[in-house]
Specification:
single chain, 258 residues, alpha/beta, TIM Barrel, eight-stranded parallel β-sheet, 9 helices, 8 strands, 17% strand, globular, binds zinc ion
Length: 258
């Protein structure tokens, strides 16, 4: 059985995390990075990682939650003390759903990038635009350019933007997260991007419980489905799943120490 890492997923509570991580370990998922959407979510993960050997976490405020964030970072020393805080995330800009006003989203994103630099942690970035717009990518790029110039490292998780921005972000040293979308029938753009990512910058992720790969599309996702994503990525890049395992495990170790 091949071993893999899931570099981006979510858990609603501790008992679910415990059960899913144990099941996933049996499917060869030796390391899982769970991303928080809010500070209370990060507090839950902070407890969970202390009980679950193959789980570590990222703490941050998702753009959807930007308006409700009170600017309080006082929990981070406690998060760090677990030894399992591996990133700031999930953070970014979402101009597709627009659940929070753009000004709040940008303010929180910028604060989170500063925080990541101060703790020397990488960030997991979510970026999404409305169709025919690249406004969120434009703004994210400007902030990430400064961030990377200051030594910051980042992954664009679930990347589904243009080739142009893939190249621009690559120029800043970006990592890219490949998930179940690569198995979707109509996602030719995702496969084209996945073919082009620099070898040393590809990461596997599920974004579970969302985005289950085929043949489970529309059902609840789990890190245990990572091998399906790895197989699809192997086919696109014309390499073996073994090579994808070796490559993405190495990349996850470099960026997140998992
Ligand atoms: Zn996510």
């Amino acid at each position: 059985m091949l071993s893999f890492r899931d570099t981006h997923c979510h858990f609603a509570d501790e008992s679910l995390a415990e059960r899913v991580c144990a099941e996933s370990l049996e499917s060869g998922i030796a390391g899982i990075l769970a991303c928080a959407s809010s500070i209370p979510d990060a507090c839950m993960l902070c407890k969970a990682v202390q009980k679950i050997p193959n789980l570590c976490f990222a703490a941050g405020v998702h753009p959807h939650e930007a308006e409700s964030f009170d600017g309080n970072f006082s929990c981070f020393p406690e998060f760090l003390s677990t030894g399992k805080l591996r990133a700031v995330g999930e953070i970014g800009l979402d101009f597709y759903y627009d659940f929070a006003d753009h000004e709040s989203q940008i303010r929180v994103f910028s604060k989170m990038l500063e925080l990541a630099l101060s703790m020397d942690l990488p960030v997991s970035v979510h970026c999404r635009d409305k169709e025919d717009s690249e406004a969120a990518y434009d703004i994210a790029y400007q902030y990430l350019k400064d961030f990377s110039a200051d030594g910051g490292r980042f992954v664009i998780h679930s990347y589904s933007g243009s080739m142009k921005y893939m190249e621009l972000f690559s120029g800043l040293g970006a990592w890219f997260g490949v998930n179940g979308m690569i198995t979707f029938k109509k996602a030719e753009n995702i496969r084209t991007l996945a073919k082009e990512y620099p070898t040393e910058k590809i990461l596997l992720e599920t974004d579970s419980p969302y985005l289950a790969p085929a043949p489970f599309r529309g059902k609840e996702n789990t890190p245990a489905y990572i091998p399906l994503i790895a197989e699809a990525l192997a086919a696109v890049r014309q390499v073996t799943p073994e090579e994808i395992s070796t490559l993405t495990n190495k990349n996850a170790a470099v960026l997140f120490s998992i």
